[in-house]
Amino acid sequence: MPNVYAFDGSNSFDPDYPDNQKLRFEWIVNDAIVQLTETNERNSRGKYAFPEKGTYRVMLRVTDEE
Predict the structure, then answer these.
(1) For residue 44, which of 28, 24, 59 has the smallest C-alpha distance?
(2) Which of 6, 29, 43, 48 could form a disulfide with 25 if both were Cys (CB 3.0 to 4.6 A apart)?
(3) Confidence bin at 7 (pLDDT 50/70/90)
């Protein structure tokens, strides 16, 4: 404990390049947006510490301005 996992969504891309630089990454654990630690500047990679053992649903929402 704690259970720390590394998440990486950096392979996500926008097919409408060149606006690929404007992607927004939101990490969601059990329907709540969470902030990762040790992230890169775009928040596409980072670490998350789960508070206890159990089953969690993790999602990554990637959006852009369009």
Answers:
(1) 24
(2) 43
(3) very high
